[in-house]
Amino acid sequence: MAHETISNLLHEERRFAPPAALAAEANVKAEAYARAASDREAFWAEAADRLTWTKRWDRVLDDDNAPFFKWFVGGELNAAYNCVDRHVEAGNGDRVAIHWVGEPLEDRRDITYAQLKDEVSRAANAIEELGVERGDRVAIYMPMIPEAVVAMLACARLGAVHTVVFGGFSSDALATRIDDCQAKLVITSDGGYRRGSASALKPAVDEALIKLDNANRGLVENVLVVRRTGQDVAWNGDVDIWWHDVVDHASEIHVPQPMDAEQPLYVMYTSGTTGKPKGILHTTGGYLAQAAYTHWAQFDLKADDVYWCTADIGWVTGHSYIVYGPLANGATQVLYEGTPDSPERGRWWKIIEDHKVTKFYTAPTAIRSFMKQGSAVPDSYDLSSLRILGSVGEPINPEAYVWYRDTIGGGRTPIIDTWWQTETGATLMTPLPGVTSGKPGSAMLAVPGVDVDVVDEDGTPVGNGEGGYLVVTSPWPSMLRTLWRDDDRYVDTYWSKYAAQGYYFAGDGAKKDEDGDIWVLGRVDDVMNVSGHRLSTTEIESALVSHPRVAEAAVVGASDPDTGQAVVAYVILRESPESVEGIEKELANHVRTVIGPIAKPRDLMIVPELPKTRSGKIMRRLLRDVAEGRQVGDTTTLMDADIVSKIAAGQATST
Ligand code: WTA
Asked: Which UniProt keywords apply (predicted)?
């Protein structure tokens, strides 16, 4: 698969050097690479020293039991203290931590670090009062409101492990995650504003509690509900509690407890190659050190910056680059509740103009959708405050990169194309804005202190101009520690392919160009990337097969000009297709119900058979050829060579 994609690589010659003034004053200069390479552990120890520790570590890296690595062993710190209290103690309590912008116009709140400290302390006291203790799991299912950040930090303050579930996920997906991590408390809200109206969240929590495994019934002792929209909610007095009833009356004095550097901080579920999402476990010290360092380095963070990351806190980007990285750095940032085009298309640009945003971080899928609307809308706003633009989540095509730089960045702003994963916790590859001349479409090189390579099937590094698999060749502080309650799957998924070399296998294909810079090409496994969201083909297939009319299903990710990849499903029905008119739409909506709107197939096709090898394995490669309208590849291993042409002759239904 990697080799197929490589032949499509673009010949991109444009280069954008860092602006001289930015380079001269940059937080991180070229010397950092050599310094980190000469003593990696000393480099990361220095990064960790940017945090406040109550007890210093004895050992930077413990690799005695690889791949179960530990960082800053013996050290103790509190993540919430580092993100909030210490800035107040340093005299910066009046600095705005969060410029919160609700979707309804004029619905705004500015929260200073001093106010955030009080609110996090009150929430920590309230949650503790509900019986949550160190190590307990708390599920957070919320819109983009300040209380979501407060809830995460309150958990961190107590050493409770949060698992934030994206608010766009269905009750089924929420139930699976609550079941897997056995959460004791769920924090949610009545709803949030999306596309101009109040959209409910609490009903999904109510449904999820009913859908829990029998063994876990009653596990969730309480549901803490923030009132955001004021919409009606069903109420179970035994379980449900209003946030304002308990948090508003709690004391704002709460002493943060020191946590071991390896105390679990959160579990973030992400799609893998099987139907069951993986619970990625991140711990405290190494994670916070690298999230904070990379945020400071890649955005060249300065005291007068106004930073804005458009990700949702339900994804890892929101964890590392809205909550933990920026707040540990004492940054001032915008947090926006709603959709980019509500109430009008220029909403994002209006927010940048109003708040004089200097550093902006978003995803290629958003950039492409704005590009389609043309430059007139952004051109009518004052975006001259912007200094650095970031991209994350999927490869950014050179065209979108150049549009982003010119139209949004006025041709002045370096673009940082940051490659990383839920598993990596923080950026592993990016050009640095004050050092690297950017190449449109390439994440280029590892951040200082990180070692990546592109290797062939045997683990041998490929030469310049060649492609292969992206690997990380040494451990890094913010790496996942394991999969929640599944050490075997952790070893198997990430460390077995290159066990002999001890390399982390990222699951992405990549190419080194003639200069040795790295271009990430996309997943080489059954994981799709739709609008920067990771989805597993198997997960969607399981959702389809759970419909009573479906006998079998195959799902592929086909390239899509707007969303990067799109979900295309091929389905065999139990009965003849003529008898069930409109079944395509029904099945697509079924996926939407089971997983969430992001997983709904773009196209769904009823087929008589699926292409399979003689051993019965579905050949998704051929289905991808069909979905992308290509000449169908080698069919010689197929059981029935005619089946693909039959499928290709049929018509997919856009759903
Ligand atoms: C893809 C998001 C190319 C990649 C932080 C990776 C990228 C997956 C980039 C992780 C990038 C992320 N260029 N591809 N700059 N950033 N990816 O876990 O396939 O949601 O494996 O983490 O997104 O997605 P995840």
From this structure: Acetylation, ATP-binding, Ligase, Magnesium, Metal-binding, Nucleotide-binding
Q: What are phi and psi of 510, to 5 degrees?
A: -155, 165
Give the position, in ligand 1's atom list, of the atom nearest the Cα of 523: 19
Ligand 1 pocket mutation pick from 9, 419, 471 by most atoms within 8 angstroms of CB: 419
Token digits of residue 294: 């990379």
User: Which residues make up each annotated binding site for ATP?
Assistant: 393-395, 417-422, 508, 523, 534
Which amino acid is located at 320 in the chain?
Answer: S
The pLDDT of residue 144: 98
312 touches ligand 1 (CB under 6 Å):
no
Pocket lining: 422 vs ligand 1, CB cutoff 6 Å: yes
- Per residue in 292-303, pLDDT (tens digit) is 999 999 999 999
User: Ligand 1 centroid to 227 CA: how many Å?
Assistant: 34
* Nearest-10 Cα torsion for 484, 487, 493, 494: 100
ipTM for this prediction: 1.00
Report yes or no: 581 and 605 within 8 Å, Cβ to Cβ: no
Q: Answer yes or no: is pLDDT of 496 > 90.
A: yes
Mean pLDDT of 304-312: 98
At 43-80, the pLDDT tens digits run: 999 999 999 999 999 999 999 999 999 999 999 999 99
Annotated binding site for CoA: 194-197, 317, 531, 592
Lowest mean pLDDT of 149-158, 187-196, 525-534, 636-645, name the range.
Answer: 636-645
Please state whether 533 falls in left (phi above 0), alpha (psi between -120 and 50) or beta. Answer: beta
Annotated binding site for Mg(2+): 545, 547, 550
What pTM was estimated for this model as a whole?
Answer: 0.92
Substitution candidate for ligand 1 out of 312, 394, 452, 598 with most atoms within 8 A of CB: 394
Cα 393 to ligand 1 centre (Å): 4
Mean pLDDT of the chain: 93
Helices first, then strands: H and E counts in the chain: 23, 31
Smallest CA-to-CA distance from 559 within 373, 397, 391, 401 is with: 397
Q: What is the dihedral of CA 336, 594, 528, 401, to 10 degrees?
A: -20
By CB atoms closer than 10 A (0-12, 13-18, 19+), residue 592 is middle
The rounded Å distance from CA 421 to ligand 1 centre is 5
Cα→Cα distances 392→202, 365, 533, Å: 30, 10, 11
Q: What is the pLDDT of residue 560?
A: 92
| Model pLDDT for residues 349-396, shown as the tens digit of each residue | 999 999 999 999 999 999 999 998 899 999 999 999 999 999 999 999
How many whole angstroms separate alpha carbon 333 and alpha carbon 183? Answer: 30
Chain mean position to CA 469: 21
The angle at the Cα of 130, spanning 126 to 135, to the nearest 5 degrees, equals 100
CA 522 to chain centre: 15
Please count the other Cβ atoms lying within 10 Å of the Cβ belonging to residue 434. Answer: 22
Q: Which of 164, 529, 530 to mutate to test the pocket of ligand 1 (most atoms within 8 A of CB)?
A: 529
Token pair recorded at residue 319? 């964890």
Longest dimension (CA), the chain: 73
- Residue 395 Cβ contacting ligand 1 at under 6 Å: yes
Cα(368) to ligand 1 centroid in Å equals 16
